């Protein structure tokens, strides 16, 4: 049984909150001022703390800071007055897990507590797996996609990742060129080898020289005469088409030196570009010799508007990152929100999608990202283009059956999540599943 500590100087709020949580099966402890709450924390070791912001003596922020000193892993939920924006912002900046505005909404309270418990579980799983396992998981999941184009890219990465061949990665701004370069590096035989990033626009010779020296030093660590090679470090050349003529010559000299002629020691060159390098060569703006040195394999990432089927997978993937960044637990995207995301052309590609999702996560309450949380210029919930019906209208019962089936498929038959999305109780959902003969 999970334990919850409530700290609030208002006995009415304490009784209300305690009653709601006890009915849900939680063990609840209460205190009516901050100091007493801290003492209970030390003896009862609760899983979650709910504390009022404004209290005489020790405030909610003081309580939060003290809890962070004692145990940084306990989620702290702050109770604030309705519309108290400055206090809400300060609470979240200080490290609160979430906040709840008064008067308390029972559904929101339980939802927030459950989200906090889920965050504890995820933290423990990551801790048990260890930092190396967490890093491997991150590195192996830098990119996702199920479209034909993305599957082909992943296949090709698998074919050459163990080598140090030069790769040119092209694509519009925001498509994920740098992520793909990192995926190639981390998929190689030595993911712990140096991965250095060079921005080619306005690149200075000293910066280039420092980077090359790091690679030479790393390659030299194998020692002369040793059979084993040190693995492949990688250099990302970001927007290689913007290299000045002088830097192109300098880089070509490096690629021609003795180190680079040793296959076991030379670094992998990963060149990113949103420009057509062949066109630059024809205009005399890029050295043909350098291009051939850098390109053994070419990968092109299509813009997001050409692979809309990747958007649901990308949204789920990006939510994992964003939840960690903003200390939230948004795990699902409502089907209507997904339709909005897939109806947009995304001129800023994956980066723009990430920005929109970041805003949506910050606006979301609970673990569901709803259509109302999506803010895209020119598109608001309700005015997205509706598809013309292709068949004759059906009965309400048929519509209900179809919708329940879709939500069950979306949640992978998680009945609790399905009931929450549909806004019905679990017994009601079970009755409708039986009524319509729905099966997994």
Could you name the key traits of this structure?
alpha/beta, 440 residues, 5-stranded parallel β-sheet, 12 strands, 12% strand, Helicase, Ruva Protein, domain 3, single chain
Strand tally: 12
What would you report as the Rg, rounded to the nearest angstrom?
Answer: 27 Å
The number of helical elements comes to 17
Strand content: 5-15%
Strand order of the largest sheet: 2-1-3-4-5
Describe the structure.
By secondary structure, the protein is an alpha/beta fold. It has helices at residues 11-23, 34-44, 60-70, 85-94, 106-140, 148-160, 177-186, 205-220, 245-255, 277-282, 288-294, 311-326, 335-343, 349-363, 396-410, 415-422, 426-436; strands at residues 3-7, 27-31, 48-52, 76-81, 98-102, 167-170, 195-199, 234-238, 268-273, 297-300, 332-333, 368-369. The protein folds into 4 domains: 3-124, Response regulator (Rossmann fold, 3-Layer(aba) Sandwich), CATH 3.40.50; 148-302, P-loop containing nucleotide triphosphate hydrolases (Rossmann fold), CATH 3.40.50.300; 308-373, Helicase, Ruva Protein, domain 3 (Orthogonal Bundle), CATH 1.10.8; 396-436, Homeodomain-like (Arc Repressor Mutant, subunit A, Orthogonal Bundle), CATH 1.10.10. The protein has a 5-stranded parallel beta sheet, sandwiched between helices. Strands 7-8-9-6-10 form a 5-stranded parallel beta sheet, with helices on both faces. Strand 4 (76-81), helix 4 and strand 5 form a beta-alpha-beta unit. Residues 126-131, 133-140, 223-228 and 384-392 have low confidence and may be disordered.
């Amino acid at each position: 049984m999970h334990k919850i500590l409530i700290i609030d100087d208002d006995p009415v709020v304490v009784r209300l909150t305690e009653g709601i949580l006890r009915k849900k099966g939680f063990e609840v402890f209460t205190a009516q001022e901050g100091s007493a709450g801290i003492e209970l924390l030390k003896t009862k070791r609760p899983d979650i703390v709910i504390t009022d912001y404004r209290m005489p003596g020790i405030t909610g922020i003081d309580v939060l800071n003290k809890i962070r000193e004692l145990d940084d892993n306990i989620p702290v939920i702050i109770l604030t007055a309705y519309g108290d924006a400055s206090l809400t912002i300060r609470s979240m900046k200080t490290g609160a897990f979430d906040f709840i505005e008064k008067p308390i909404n029972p559904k929101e309270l339980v939802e927030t507590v459950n989200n906090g418990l889920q965050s504890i579980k995820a933290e423990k799983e990551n801790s048990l797996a260890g930092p190396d396992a967490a890093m491997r998981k991150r590195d192996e999941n830098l990119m996702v996609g199920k479209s034909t184009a993305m599957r082909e890219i992943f296949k090709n990465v698998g074919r050459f990742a163990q080598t140090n061949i030069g790769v040119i990665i092209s694509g519009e701004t925001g498509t994920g060129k740098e992520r793909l370069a990192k995926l190639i590096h981390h998929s190689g035989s030595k993911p712990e080898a140096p991965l250095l990033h060079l921005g080619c626009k306005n690149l200075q010779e000293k910066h280039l020289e420092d980077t090359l020296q790091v690679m030479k030093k790393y390659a030299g660590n194998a020692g002369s005469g040793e059979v084993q090679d040190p693995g492949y470090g990688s250099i990302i050349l970001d927007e290689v088409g913007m290299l000045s003529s002088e830097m192109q010559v300098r880089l070509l000299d490096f690629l021609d030196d003795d180190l680079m002629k040793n296959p076991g020691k030379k670094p992998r060159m990963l060149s990113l570009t949103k420009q057509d390098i062949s066109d630059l060569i024809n205009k005399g703006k890029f050295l043909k010799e350098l291009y051939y040195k850098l390109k053994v394999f070419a990968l092109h990432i299509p813009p997001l508007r050409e692979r809309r089927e990747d958007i649901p997978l990308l949204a789920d993937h990006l939510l994992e990152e964003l939840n960690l960044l903003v200390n939230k637990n948004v795990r699902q995207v409502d089907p209507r929100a997904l339709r909005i995301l897939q109806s947009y052309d995304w001129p800023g590609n994956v980066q723009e999608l990430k920005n929109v999702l970041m805003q949506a996560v910050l606006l979301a309450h609970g673990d569901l990202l709803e259509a109302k949380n999506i803010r895209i210029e020119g598109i608001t919930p309700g005015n997205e283009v509706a598809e013309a019906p292709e068949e004759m209208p059906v009965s309400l019962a048929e519509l209900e059956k179809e919708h329940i089936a879709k939500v069950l498929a979306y949640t992978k038959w998680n009945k609790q999540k399905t009931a929450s999305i549909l806004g019905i109780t679990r017994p009601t959902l079970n009755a409708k599943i039986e009524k319509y003969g729905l099966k997994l």
